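Illustration: Bifunctional protein GlmU.
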Amino acid sequence: MPLDIVVLAAGKGTRMYSDLPKVLHPIAGKPMLAHVLDAVVDMADASTTVVIGHGAETVRAAFGDRKVNWAEQTAQLGTGHAVMQAAPFLRDDATTLILMGDVPLIKTQTLIDLVKRAESTGFGLLTLKLDDPTGYGRIVRNVSGKVEGIIEQKDSTPEQLLIGEVNTGVMAINGGKLKRWLSSLSNNNAQGEYYLTDVVATAVNEGVEIATQAAQSLHEVMGVNNRIQQAELERAYQRGYASTLLAAGLSLADPERIDVRGTLRHGKDCFIDVNCVIEGEVTIGNGVVIGPNCHLKNVTIGDGAMIKAFTSIEDSSLAGTNDVGPYARLRPGTQLGHGAKIGNFVETKKAEIGNGSKVNHLSYIGDAVLGSGVNVGAGTITCNYDGINKHQTVLADDVFIGSNSTLVAPITVGKGSFVGAASVITKTVDENSLAISRSKQKNVAGWVPPKKRN
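Result:
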């Protein structure tokens, strides 16, 4: 049966205290609405409509690459009214699956199971049993166990308040019936709004059986209305991702202290210490060790590499058996060959560093190509920018650069050559040569240093 998906994403999110539309606030580095859309992207024969309102253009622009229909709710008149805006996109012969854009941890399998139940009766309702159902609408059943309706807490009797099964807001309904029931909704209530939950009672009155599906956990169906709930779902997501990594054999020093804001793929016998942040697409090989407080974004790391504490690596690749950090920064375009080493307080950018080469201390290597076996002394920099254009520095195999050297690009240092410490190199250095560029030292006898002024 075809499937029409409606995602309600029109809310302002007043309690977020933000100019950003609520559904664009992130969980694990991704907008909440993106989590919901990703959960349904692979569902068969599906068409998706997103109902937007507050910050509509901002939301639309953030998802310009998504193949979805957009419906706008210009007046916030309740969930029923929001679904009405999507009605032109709903097919009578399809099942309509209604989701919330601020419920980011909903699972695909749960939705598949709910849709299957809805196809058998024409109406499926996702529910959850809670030990403390305070604040939720209760699912009222008759003596035979069939759903009779949903009663909000403020309208519940003392007996109904004892009901632990609650409404999650997620429904799957036959499209033709849904549109007919929507047209009969009334806003004759204190809030002057059209409630989607009212269609449950209408369906029951017509003899339609409400089939229910249980959610797997509270966090799966929990919405975000404030920063506290956002933080709670962030930790729930990270805890779940860490459990998946542990189950797949990755060793974590503390699964409560890792944040994955993208995808992490790993080999065997890897270890990640505390407080590491993983963003984008990160792949690590076998036997990789990542020290505490590291940040990796869009990185590939080969077998046997060691990334020491407080290292940041972005849009870079490491071939393997590398030793990096502590306190190193590998900026976009860095490529390390096998066994290449980057030490403490070294920054690289758009640098190809060959097998076994070392930049051990306090250096900047940008727009550079280093061959194999190169040694760069402490305090060396490549002057790659002339104020308008970037230029490249090339250090051939087995080059040795003395400490505190300045390499003014464009420049090439030939194979096997040495550069003396504290040199400023502005010209090409031939192979197997020694380049020294210093002023002659002059000692002034009887020098009297300046005194402090009163």
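Reading the tokens back as a structure: Helices lie at 32-40, 56-62, 79-86, 108-121, 175-183, 198-205, 218-221, 227-247.
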